[in-house]
Amino acid sequence: MIVVSGAVAGGVIGALNRDGGDKPAAIVVAVADRGAVTLDVATTGTVEPATTRSLSFAVAGTVESVQVRAGNKVSKGQKLAALDDTEAADDVSDAETSLAEARDRLGDAETVGARATASATTCARTGPTVAPAAVGPAAAPAVGIRAAVEGRVASPCVTRGYPDTGSDQVLTAQQQVNRAARAVEAAEKALDGTGIVAPIAGTVVSVGGKVGDQVRGGSTFISLADTYSMQVRADFPEADAGALAAGQTATISLADSDDVYEAEVVQVDPAGTSDGTLVRYGVVLSFADSPADLLVGQSAQVKVRTGAVTNVLRVPSTAVHDVSGGSGTVLVRAANRSEERVVAVGLRGDQYTEITGGLEQGDQVVRSW
């Protein structure tokens, strides 16, 4: 007969089958019930900043000041280091002087052009200046027959000493102003490039020099990590990586802490790396709510949920054997007897396996056989 030893969570019960003899044969059975089936994959990872910036001076020069060192927390916009800017400041002053002179020349050219245009307009409106014509045959060839008849001759328009220069001088002066303005912008940009300012709030990871050093423009001088937005990088074996995808939920447990933090997979490396024995794929996870005082390089336990179904018929995964092609075998217990039965299998989780056919809710199966 079956002696029920007790009921526990999940509908699992224990039974003892006494077929005779002094030593009873223990058969632990489980009841097929409805609930959730989940599948997780786990590994270890390392805490790292979500963003790291390599900061450099825009120009070459001599380091005049360094206001931070590795480990310092800084705010956005905070000044971190500076070069001697004497030469750059002089360049800005010279460029501004050249721009002012070019604008003065443009103003002069525009004034001359405006006067010349005004004189030409007056001449065109009033007509040419005329003088009485000479009388007599000798004058006819010089003034023309018609002018001789009318008794007058046309003389050129007087422009009051302002030659007709057109727009060429104004255009040339405007081009000089444009070039001078660009030179000022470049000089100001170079002056700004003598300092390094934090583009984000974070923690200084490294400083690549000291006061008095000669540095090149564009060469990394300070590395700044966004430690206010930390993430975890972990490597999963090839067997697990195929089930991983961005957007999956996860949990992260930090070393020396019992706290568990919700997280999400944000990146799965498309190519794996091999150590000669095992191929692993890198995965990046972000905290749903990043805890305070995280340390760069801190160890973490990572668990990613790769599959989940709810309100399905399920039995303990240990009860299902020979799973292949969507089917498996269970040992059904009924009327003090056990018999094998092929069942249809869905998601095979860590603790439970989904049964899609072959069993009914309440059926008893041998938990482990």
Secondary structure layout:
Elements: E1 2-7, E2 12-17, E3 25-31, E4 33-49, E5 52-56, E6 61-66, E7 73-74, E8 79-83, H1 86-126, E9 129-132, H2 140-143, H3 145-150, E10 152-155, H4 168-192, E11 195-197, E12 202-207, E13 214-215, E14 220-225, E15 230-237, H5 238-241, E16 249-254, E17 260-268, E18 273-274, E19 279-287, E20 299-316, E21 321-324, E22 327-334, E23 337-348, E24 352-357, E25 364-366
Antiparallel strand pairs: 1-2, 2-3, 3-25, 4-15, 4-20, 5-14, 6-8, 6-13, 7-12, 8-11, 9-10, 12-14, 15-19, 16-17, 16-20, 17-19, 18-19, 20-24, 21-22, 22-23, 23-24
Helix pairs in contact: 1-4
Family: Belongs to the membrane fusion protein (MFP) (TC 8.A.1) family.
Subcellular location: Cell envelope
Pfam family, one: RND-MFP_C
Structure explained in plain terms:
The structure is a single chain. This protein is of the alpha+beta class. Among the domains are: 43-49 and 227-307, Elongation Factor Tu (Ef-tu), domain 3; 63-84 and 194-225, OB fold (Dihydrolipoamide Acetyltransferase, E2P) (Beta Barrel), CATH 2.40.50; 93-191. It has 5 helices and 25 strands. It has helices at residues 86-126, 140-143, 145-150, 168-192, 238-241; strands at residues 2-7, 12-17, 25-31, 33-49, 52-56, 61-66, 73-74, 79-83, 129-132, 152-155, 195-197, 202-207, 214-215, 220-225, 230-237, 249-254, 260-268, 273-274, 279-287, 299-316, 321-324, 327-334, 337-348, 352-357, 364-366. The strands form 5 sheets. A 6-stranded antiparallel β-barrel has the order 4-15-19-17-16-20. A 4-stranded antiparallel β-sheet has the order 1-2-3-25, with no helix packed on it. It has a 4-stranded antiparallel β-sheet with strand order 5-14-12-7, with no helix packed on it. Strand 23 (337-348) and strand 24 (352-357) form a beta hairpin. Helix 1 (86-126) runs antiparallel to helix 4 (168-192). The longest helix has 41 residues, at 86-126. Mean pLDDT is 84; it is low at 1-20 and 133-149.
